[in-house]
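Internal tracking record. Fields below are filled automatically when a chain is submitted to the structure queue. Please do not edit lines marked as system-generated. If the sequence contains nonstandard residues, flag them in the REMARKS field before resubmitting.
Queue: standard
Priority: normal
Entity type: single polypeptide chain
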Amino acid sequence: MTETLDAVTIDELKAVIDRGLGTTKSRELMATSEVADLLLDLRLLLATTEADIEADIEASPLN
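SYSTEM-GENERATED OUTPUT FOLLOWS
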């Protein structure tokens, strides 16, 4: 990714990470699905355009 992220996107990413850490800090283990959900949330925030998101959804093995 050669484009820089704007401050709003960075703040959103931090908020997602903080929520994820806040809900798991007292546990020793996390379900794989919880980790995947967190990573997918971050991935969607990092997508640069609506077209990128649509292309990722269409290419997903779940579809």
